Amino acid sequence: MRELFLKPAERLPEKKFLVGGAQYPEDFPWNKNVWFVRHVPPPEHPAFYCSSRATLNVTRAAMASVGYCPSGRLFEAAACETPIISDWWEGLDEFFCPDRELLVAKSSDDVVAALARSTEELREIGNRARERVMSSHTAAHRSQELLRLVEVMG
Q: pTM score, two decimals?
């Protein structure tokens, strides 16, 4: 979180950064340009994502160590056409095409470079991510996949 969120916020003091979630301690090192919302109820997730020029996904260590275990946040943000900047974890490229449907950040430099892209470029990335979600990652797709696996397992 420090490398991919706080450092870019420090380097881009003219930008506003918003973080939402209940897992941040009171003594978290917030900056003047970082805004915090403790909890965003699920019905408000689309508005939260759509309020951003881009959203950052930092995968929890337990999920990243397993790989192939994307957070639902990725699909929610993509469905909202919000450009995603994500840390890397094994299998990410099975769900989204890096540099086409989302941007991968391994350092604060990567995040700063992603945010320096034009609005049009980011919009196109968000558009392609939404297309990918709608063509491959909806609940209907998952239920069809489950039924197929049950049939194969017999």
A: 0.92
